[in-house]
Write a structure and sequence with these properties.
With about 120 residues, the protein is an alpha+beta fold. Helix content is about 20%, strand content about 35%. It is built from three helices and six strands, in the order H-H-E-E-E-H-E-E-E.
């Protein structure tokens, strides 16, 4: 006699509790590895990021395969002299803070440097 539908799809656990936890960790690591790219950026560090069209500054909150998210971010429409802005947090000629996080496409980044100063919070 052929098995009934209920018998065919019996979903009783075939793994021990320890095996389930181990499998969950393996899956989590695999998914994380697929989403994260190898970048020099570190979560919690502040960066001045130059993209193909603009300059942003903020603290790295998240890195995925295609995007980097900056918290406490600002768009810097006018850095003034580049070498001067890298030496002084007050050298920017203009600062436009983001209302929310800034999400930047990884492939648009031209260069970046860690920012050793406080992040600007006021528009200028």
């Amino acid at each position: 006699m052929p098995p009934t539908k209920k018998q065919q799809f019996n979903m009783r656990p075939i793994l021990s509790g320890e095996q389930v936890v181990e499998l969950q960790e393996t899956i989590k690591e695999s998914i994380h590895g697929a989403l994260i790219v190898d970048t020099p950026f570190k979560i919690g560090h502040k960066y001045l990021v130059r993209t193909v069209t603009m300059v942003n500054i903020g603290m790295v909150k998240q890195i995925t395969r295609d995007f980097i998210t900056l918290s406490n971010a600002s768009w810097i429409p006018d850095t003034g002299r580049w070498s001067e802005c890298l030496k002084s947090p007050t050298a920017f000629n203009a600062i436009e803070p983001f209302l929310n996080d800034a999400i930047i496409g990884i492939n648009t980044i031209v260069d970046a440097t860690e920012w050793p100063f406080s992040l600007p919070t006021e528009a200028k």
